Amino acid sequence: VGQGGSTKTNIVSNNAQGCAQFISQKVNFQDNRWTLCAPRVPETGSLKITKAVTGDVPPAFAQTFSFDVVCTKDGEDNLTFNNLEIDYPTETEVTQANIPTGFECTVSEDTRTDVPGYTWGTPVFTGNPATITTKDTTYTVGVENPITRDKGSLKITKAVTGDVPPAFAQT
Predict the structure, then answer these.
(1) For 76, phi and psi rounded to 5 degrees?
(2) Which of the residue ranges 31-35, 53-57, 64-68, 159-163 would you say has the lowest mean pLDDT?
(3) How crowded is residue 106: how many other Cβ atoms within 10 Å of its Cβ?
(4) Interacting residues of 151 by C-beta distance below 8 A, sequence separation 6+
(5) Pick from 161, 49, 169: which is nearest to 110 by CA?
(6) Cβ-count burial of 52 within 10 angstroms (0-12 exposed, 13-18 middle, 19+ buried)?
(7) Can you tell me the distance from the alpha carbon of 133 to that of 99, in angstroms, rounded to the nearest whole number?
(8) What are the residues whose beta carbons fall under 8 Å from the beta carbon of 117, sequence distance 6 or more?
(9) How many whole angstroms separate alpha carbon 90 and alpha carbon 126?
(10) Count of C-beta atoms within a 10 Å radius of residue 71
(11) I want to staple 6 with a disulfide (CB 3.0 to 4.6 A). Which of 2, 43, 70, 142 is the partner?
(12) Which residues, 6 or more positions from 69, have their beta carbon under 8 angstroms from its beta carbon?
């Protein structure tokens, strides 16, 4: 009961799809007020993964690289995005949009394809994990893959046999 003996009725309905609020200053529903809310739409951002291959890159090198992303936030179900692909060198990035703000996203790279005569180094990640903090903003995780040419060694030894003169010395 409000001031002067008036009755106030407050009804709120919120089902995550939207909300409606009704406030009446009197029991007979005169002088009432409705508040309608739009459906709750989460604010979202994006995660961009960039790719670089460095070192002894083979001539005409091309490969499809695949990435997985797991985004976590306390009190929320994890978001998982698998097999985000970059067709390198034609493409050097891939973007996953519509990630709700507040989620922290960790990028992992799937197994790379071996290149005969070359060895992959350990991937170098920058900006990983990335937290989506601001709506309509793109956050970047960089992935660099060093590659080196396999190199062998050659050792040549010479032996002189037969009747070798005593003062024979040669390099």
Answers:
(1) -125, 155
(2) 31-35
(3) 14
(4) none
(5) 49
(6) middle
(7) 10
(8) 58, 149, 150
(9) 22
(10) 23
(11) 2
(12) 47, 49, 79, 80, 81, 82, 84, 96, 105, 106, 107, 108
Three-state DSSP class for 29?
Answer: coil
Q: What is the CA radius of gyration of the chain?
A: 33
At residue 141, the 3 state secondary structure works out as strand
Phi and psi at residue 3, in whole multiples of 5°? -65, 150
Contact 137, 97 (CB under 8 A): no
What is the residue whose two structure tokens read 């090198």?
61
> Smallest Cα–Cα separation from 112: which of 59, 53, 160?
53
Cis ω before 129 (30° cut-off from 0): yes
Strands 104-109 and 9-14, by their bridges, are unpaired
This prediction's pTM: 0.69
CB 145 within 8 A of CB 121: yes
What single letter denotes the amino acid at residue 110?
D
Amino acid at the residue 164: V
Q: pLDDT tens-digit profile of 7-35?
A: 555 544 444 445 544 444 444 455 555 55
Residue 105 CA to residue 109 CA, distance in Å, equals 13
CA atoms of 84 and 66, how far apart (whole Å) = 5
Which residue reads 């990335």 in tokens?
Answer: 130
